[in-house]
Amino acid sequence: MTSTPTTRIPVYLDCDTGIDDALALAYLLASPEIDLVGIGSVSGNVSAAQGAVNTLDLLALAGRPDVPVAVGAHHPVAGEFDGGVPHIHGRNGVGNVDLPPSGLEPVAESAAELLIRLSHQHEGELRVLAIGPFTNLAEALRIDAGLAGRVHGVTVMGGAALTPGNVTPVAEANVWNDPEAAAEVVGADWDVTLVPLDVTEENVFEESDREALLAAETPLARALGEILDVYFDFYVVVYGRRSCALHDPLSAALVVGGITATKAPAVPIVVDTTQGPGRGQTICDLRGQRMGTHDRVGRRTRVVLDTDRPLAEHLVERILAYRPAV
Ligand SMILES: [Ca+2]
Fold first, then answer.
1. Is 120 a catalytic site residue?
2. What tens digit of pLDDT does each residue of 281-315 get?
3. For site-directed labelling of 322, which of 1, 146, 193, 273 has its Cα 20 to 30 A away?
C-alpha cells in the first residue's frame, strides 16, 4: 500500500454478505479516507460461515487478501438462525454467482474477539460499522464492558423510524433478526448512529447503474454487476421495477464521509423485544418534530432522517475508479 495508514480512519466492518453488503465492502475498499482494519461475519442474509466465505472471495477479487475476516455468531442472542433469505440474495448470498474461490481462511478468533482486539489497537479512533444483525456487537459488549469506551462511534444499518418495516409492518431485517442484540447495542454507553429504512430506501440503484458496473474494467466491479441481477428481481415488489435499495452502501458512505447526514437528531431509541406485533420495531422518540427536530440533552443515539445527496452516482464512481493495490 502506498497510502499512510495513520492518516486514515480505522473501520471495523460487521456484515452478513449479502449483495448490498458486497457493494458496501467494495465502496469501503475504494475509499482512501478509511482503513478497513477487520471484518466480522454474522448470520443474517446467509449464515455467518457463508458470509465469511463471500467476504473473503470479494476481498481476493479486490486485491485485498490482507484484511482479516473473522466468523461471528451463527445464532442470534435469543432463538436460532432462520436460514437466511435465498429468495432475496440468492442461495449463496451473492446472487447465485460463483465467485472465484479465494483460497483464504478466516482468522482463528471470533468476530467479537477481533472487534475487541481492534478496539485496543485503535483505542479512541475505531469506527464500528454494522450492516448485518448486531449479534457480534452485543457479544463483544458482554465479553468486555470496556469496549464501548474505546470505540469512537458505531454506525448501524437498521430500523425504521417513521416508515414501515421490511420484514413486518414495523420491523427492519437487521433488527428483526436479533432484536435482543439491537436493544443491547443502542442501550450501551457509546455513540450510535442508526441508518434506518427512512433514508436507505430513498437511495435506489437503477439498471443503468448496474450496467455501468457490468461494463467496468475490473473483475470486482463486473462481479458486483452480475450478483445484483437476482437482487434487482426481488425489488420489483418494492419499487415496481428492477432496481434495489442501497441500505448497506449508504451506511458505509456516512462513515466514510462521502455522504453527509443533514438531519440526524440525537433522540431516545428503544428496540421492541416483546413477542407481539411490535417485535423488532425501533421506537425513535421524534415528538416535537413539527417544531424542528432537535438533539435531546445527553442522548448518544442518533437516527439519520435525511442526507445531502443521493448515493448511487458517487457509489458507481468510486467502485469504477478503484484499482487493486499491487
Ligand atoms: Ca447486510
1. no
2. 999 999 988 888 789 999 999 999 999 999 999 99
3. 193
Ligand 1 centre from 100 Cα, in Å? Answer: 21
* Domain interval for residue 197: 9-321
| CA 18 to ligand 1 centroid distance, Å | 6
Residue 80 lies in a domain: yes
Determine how β-strand 261-263 pairs with β-strand 69-71: unpaired
- Reply yes or no on whether 247 is catalytic: yes
Distance of CA 157 from the midpoint of ligand 1 (Å): 8
In this structure, is residue 291 part of a structural domain?
Answer: yes
Q: Which of 198, 247, 248, 272 is catalytic?
A: 247
Q: Which of 16, 20, 35, 178 is catalytic?
A: 16
Q: Is residue 326 part of a domain?
A: no
Cα 174 to ligand 1 centre (Å): 7
Residue 112: inside a domain: yes
| pLDDT over threshold 90, residue 113 | yes
pTM beyond cutoff 0.85: yes
Domain count, the chain: 1
**Tell me: the pLDDT tens digits for 221-232?**
999 999 999 999
